[in-house]
Structures
1.
Amino acid sequence: MNQAWKLESFLDAIVMELDKARETLAIKAVNKPLNYAVKDLAIELQTFPTYDGDDVRFVTAQPGQTGASKISVQLGSITDQQVRATSKEPPSKSDVQIADAKIEPSMKNELRKLGVTSVSDLERIDRENIDLAKVPERNLDPGAIANLIRQRSRDRTPPVIKRATLSRAADGRRRLTLSGQALALSAEHQPEAVVDGRQQRVVRAAPDAIEVELDAAAEAHGARDVVLALDPYCVLRVELKSSQVGAR
Amino acid sequence: MSSKRREPKYLDLGELIVAYATPPEPLLAVQPDGESCRMRPTAVSLTSPVELEIRVDSSGRVELASAPPLYDVDTSFRPVFQRLTLEVDVTLSSEEAR
């Protein structure tokens, strides 16, 4: 029984086989006066296509079957410069692939159909001022798209904590100040702080410092484990040791 | 990959391409009027019917195997042949060109 396959997987398989052939021919050329290089390859297939609403799949015709469609695949040869000029840049290590993003599978499919494979693609579209939510019949959640872009943007500016200080305010309460870079960056979100498992009040939030007022229990405990939700895209955990906390 | 065993007649498509892309040696040498001359191919163009076995594993990955037509017998049900076209460039190796 023939199995159904996707055109993308079929092309991957052809390219892999062609690469293997090229490598073998290159080795053979070492001891031969003539070099043989596959310049073009074309395959015509007798197939029956099906569409399940998401993907088109093909089954090759079997003996005795008539009425098959013909697909012709042609692979030409181009230089590496032409590849660079006509292809998207390969994904970087820090880029998030849509396949790995935490969004609904149906939305992943819709984005794939629009040729969007990474969050970098979404950023590029956003820079062009294109509103994907208005693309007809695609049902793309604008909130989820914005979240992916903001998450990527936050990943590029990770928070840095350089110093932790314990001090006492005028009202006698202890305050923990964490100083550094890229801490509170969002004007829309107020950072939240949990110290040793108890939520504490953030009294000041700025890009270079977060100031947390400690209640009596946290003060007594010594404030060792601090979890900061700086915004919806950045949560960090800090473990403080006594030598790192400068008491004033 | 599928647990079904591949028939012995099938080769990896890459092996078939190598077989097709390598013309037989030696180069043709002729001696008209006592003078020798060497001939070499500069390009190979081939179009052939092939049987193609397309296997798909559970992750959707495709594996291709192929076979040239083995029998020239007019049976009631003929194998389904796909058409493979190859254009091969032939160049002299740098040592030979010198």
2.
Amino acid sequence: MMKELIATVKQNQLIAENIYSMTLTLPEGVGQIRGGQFLNLSVGDKVHLLKRPLGICKVEGDDVTVCYQLKGEGTRLLSQKVKGDKLSVLLPLGNGFILPQTAKNVAVIGGGVGVFPLISVIREHFGKVNFHSYIGFRNKDAVCLMEELEKSTTLTVTTDDGSVGIKGNAVSAYFADENKVKADLIIACGPPIMLKVLKQKLAEAGDKTPCLVSLEERMGCGIGACLVCVCKTTSGGNTRVCKDGPVFEIGEVEL
Amino acid sequence: MANLSVEICGVKFKNPLIAASGTYGFGREFDEIYDISQIGGISTKGLTLEPRLGNPVPRIAESSSVILNAVGLQNPGVEHFIKHDLPWLKEKGVVVIANVAGRTLEDYEGICKRLNGLVDMVELNISCPNVRAGGMALGIRPENIEEVTVLTKKQLTKTPLIVKLSPNVESIVTNAKAAERGGADCISLINTLTGMVIDIEKRKPVIANNTGGVSGAGIKPIAVRMVYEASHAVNIPVIGMGGIMTGEDAIEFMMAGASAVQVGTANFYDVNAMPKIINQMDSWLNKHNIKSVNEIVKTATLNG
């Protein structure tokens, strides 16, 4: 159930170059949080009126963990928060990744900060679904959360410069994998260009595997009221990333 | 418990808090978080005769104590609103103010004709480009404001008309008087100020539309000044808005001359902002032994 709460920072630490992990303790439960849902987090002052939408990475009881990259003033302020600080948070938001009951083998394609919401999906279905993950980072300094990613049944890591894993990116690693298990579903999150290339390559390969992608956009309210964070649909309309998404069927949205 | 109810143009509000257009949709999303019947009224997302897709993204940016938006009037069109949202809103028991926009004077006449008698009030959004006036914004020149007010008022035989004024003008007093002369039953102000935020790494504006409407706490002193000036220049009620974040802010606007207020950007800062502001107003009035919120309207006096 969607609630605005005053959460307490439990930990906030640097986990890779420019990447922080923050765990927030909620004062009360919000019901089930689905993998791929997000929260809208205040940076804790009266000067920044917009909350920051961040994909939920981990849920442990009333503790939720988000990871974020230093991008601007808002994330810089977040990075300075210490244990015990209070932050206003609105959650859970968005649809998240809804896996069909029949899904047994799921391919996970993640790039950069897009990896974080995918981790919550792997954790949610751990032991019930086989996850075959293809995860791309920029270089060895950007690699993080390997202990979570290793919960996958199989894991392929790539870096742009080859400093860890295979040289290349997550999408090319997925298509290059000759031994890959036939997936019932692909779930993906990453930079816009990654998702665009994924869509093109699936089309070129005639691969009809259902594919869900999670999108990012600058948001206002986070609950679907203000129509700020829209994405174009292939049927010629607009859809709200915060409320109708952030997860969409890849064929449903313009990438 | 102070009496928070107000009456504007014969329309009764349970309290003077109205959700500002564009920040609250048609109320459904906020109703998932709190019962929206707690608030006085809703000014709907800006409606046009036909559905509109709006501007490209990004549509929003932030600067100290303010935000900028350029949504570009994305809306499902007035017919969709009448069929799908209006019946639901009416059941909620909040005052329904249809915020309307158009490209031409004919658009404004058409949409007002369609909404006449269906909603509690109509609020004219007149900061959109107008073809007939040669590309000038309809809401900037007093003669244009008067013309669109006269034409829409003719259509609104059963529904009070609010004219929402832009602050991006030479004289707010002149424009407020123009709306009154044209037959407006009420004026609301201020709409957003036009602004720009540049991403210095990309050397380009953050918002795809380049410019956006500035709103939020940072614009409040400008809004209070304009509400004061406008409300002291006309004899019709004024609805004030611009950066209201707390009950004290709302009280300030009412002392400046507003009979009711609208809350917009605060809904993004805190999803529960409106119920909180209502409680804060009540506390302030109780603390000052004021029985009815109407007693504070237009009571601020200038330094001698």
